[in-house]
């Protein structure tokens, strides 16, 4: 058993930091030490920022994004095309698409994928609010930007089914060769999908 | 401890940031779990999708430990399966059911049947019963929803038996006849022939001949697919899902809805 080398406050800080993605116990200890050493420069501003986040951050009631305002910045942005909704599994996917800057549309966060083992069914995901948004009118296209996994695509088919009675075009992201991908290393199914989805060049 | 076997991926669970716990239905070692180091990497993520077949080597210091797998893809069907809703729902429904098999209890016949069914669903093999697999516009050769439903129901019959709740569809429970079986008793799970069963038809479950592999070369009708799923669904509900406090998998519900839609 390891003996505690610092007071309970610092040990607790290390334990909490170690729960963050990308940080194990050793790197959490290093991060905690860096914070404590630069108390005024790092620790206090970080604590203030976290307190502010705790107070203001919430989930957007329209799309499920995380922001400090409700509706979120994306939903209230007048420069975005409100007739297109990009459906994503998680907020991290929304942020990834925004980073890419590929589309200026609105979003809808499902909050996960169908997972029979974990007991996550269609009613546990934000599918009905999406259907309600589309039924309210003004939406011409729904782009299913879910992961190209079995769980992700099962979810996509269920969403498509729920939207089938509405006059909305449903599309999905292309499947095929990723940038930097070498054909030799791709699985047969992905190669077949890439051939089927070939485009004029 | 070390062994190498072929298996079908039933699912995965995240372990830490880069690893996965793989749930594999192997040919000789039954349903087996193991850690795959770096399983969430780009290199391995595609191979570890449900429905793919892998050659896996399992190693552990002691037999009772979780151990870890080293895997190599053998047949990668996932990308084909995700292109067709009925095939994808079938895969999810069957994988969910197969995950209820006890761990490390060998079921070589279930493994072989699962591999065969997945090959047919993925459009890379034809069903032994001769179900037509018309080529789709995309170039793949997928079954229609009714034939997929029948295939799923047949696999479910095998899984029910492996779970200890097999149905007796060999002969009529009333007359002993082996031909013209048309119904199944919802209580006993035994087949009933058309004649003796006719007076009780409204209380019996319909047994589509195609479920027994008796088919005159024609494509199965949507009604056959629907009845086959309702038949196995009744016994799955009663013996498997309800007793474990589980809901019927959403994928199975969707597959049945697809078949019912094809009927209209």
From TrEMBL, chain A:
A biological process from GO: DNA recombination
Residue span(s) of domain Toprim: 83-178
Top-rank taxon: Bacteria
Metal-binding among keywords: yes
Start-end of C4-type zinc fingers: 60-75
Function: May play a role in DNA repair. It seems to be involved in an RecBC-independent recombinational process of DNA repair. It may act with RecF and RecO.
NCBIfam families xref list: recR
Similarity section: Belongs to the RecR family.
Name of this chain's protein: Recombination protein RecR
The organism of origin for this protein: Prosthecomicrobium pneumaticum
TrEMBL record, chain B:
Gene3D superfamilies linked to this entry: Nucleic acid-binding proteins, Recombination protein O, C-terminal domain
SUPFAM superfamilies linked: ArfGap/RecO-like zinc finger, Nucleic acid-binding proteins
Pfam families named in the record: RecO_C, RecO_N
DNA replication/recombination mediator RecO N-terminal domain residues: 1-72
Domain of life, source organism: Bacteria
Keywords, sorted A to Z: DNA damage, DNA recombination, DNA repair
GO CC terms in record: bacterial nucleoid
GO biological process, one term: double-strand break repair
Entries under InterPro entries matching the protein: ARFGAP/RecO, DNA_rep/recomb_RecO_N, NA-bd_OB-fold, RecO, RecO_C
Family to which this protein belongs: Belongs to the RecO family.
General function of this protein: Involved in DNA repair and RecF pathway recombination.
Protein name: DNA repair protein RecO
Organism of this sequence: Prosthecomicrobium pneumaticum
Encoding gene (name): recO
């Amino acid at each position: 058993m390891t003996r505690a080398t610092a007071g309970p406050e610092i040990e607790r800080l290390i334990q909490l930091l170690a729960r963050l993605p990308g940080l194990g116990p050793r790197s959490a200890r290093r991060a905690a030490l860096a914070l404590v050493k630069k108390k005024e420069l790092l620790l206090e501003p970080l604590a203030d920022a976290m307190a502010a986040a705790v107070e203001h951050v919430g989930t957007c009631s329209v799309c499920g994004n995380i922001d400090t305002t409700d509706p979120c910045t994306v939903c209230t942005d007048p420069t975005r095309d409100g007739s297109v909704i990009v459906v994503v599994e998680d907020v991290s996917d929304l942020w990834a698409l925004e980073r890419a800057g590929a589309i200026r549309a609105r979003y809808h966060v499902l909050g996960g994928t169908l997972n029979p083992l974990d007991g996550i069914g269609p009613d546990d995901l934000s599918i009905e609010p999406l259907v309600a948004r589309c039924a309210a009118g003004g939406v011409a296209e729904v782009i299913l930007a879910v992961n190209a996994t079995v769980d992700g695509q099962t979810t996509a088919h269920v969403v498509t089914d729920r939207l089938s009675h509405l006059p909305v075009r449903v599309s999905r992201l292309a499947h095929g060769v990723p940038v930097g991908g070498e054909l030799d290393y791709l699985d047969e199914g992905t190669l077949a999908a890439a051939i089927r989805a070939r485009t004029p060049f | 401890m070390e062994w190498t076997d072929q298996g079908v991926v039933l699912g995965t669970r995240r372990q830490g940031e880069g690893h996965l716990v793989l749930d594999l239905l192997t040919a000789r070692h039954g349903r087996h779990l193991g850690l795959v180091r770096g399983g969430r990497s780009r290199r391995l993520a595609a191979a570890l999708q449900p429905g793919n077949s892998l050659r896996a080597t399992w190693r552990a210091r002691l037999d009772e430990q979780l151990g870890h797998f080293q895997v190599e893809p053998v047949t990668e069907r996932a990308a084909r399966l995700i292109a067709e809703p009925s095939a994808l729902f079938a895969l999810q429904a069957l994988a969910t059911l197969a995950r209820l098999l006890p761990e490390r209890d060998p079921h070589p016949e279930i493994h072989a049947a699962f591999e065969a069914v997945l090959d047919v669903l993925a459009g890379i093999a034809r069903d032994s019963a001769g179900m037509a697999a018309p080529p789709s516009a995309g170039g793949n050769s997928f079954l229609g929803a009714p034939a997929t439903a029948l295939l799923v129901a047949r696999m479910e019959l095998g899984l029910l038996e492996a779970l200890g709740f097999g149905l007796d569809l060999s002969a009529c429970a009333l007359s002993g006849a082996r031909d013209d079986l048309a119904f199944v008793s919802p209580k006993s799970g035994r087949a009933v022939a058309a004649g003796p069963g006719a007076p009780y038809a409204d209380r019996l479950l319909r047994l589509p001949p195609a479920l027994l592999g008796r088919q005159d070369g024609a494509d199965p009708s949507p009604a056959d697919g629907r009845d086959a799923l309702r038949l196995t669904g009744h016994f799955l509900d009663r013996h498997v899902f309800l007793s474990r406090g589980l809901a019927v998998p959403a994928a199975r519900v969707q597959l049945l809805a697809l078949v019912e839609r094809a009927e209209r």
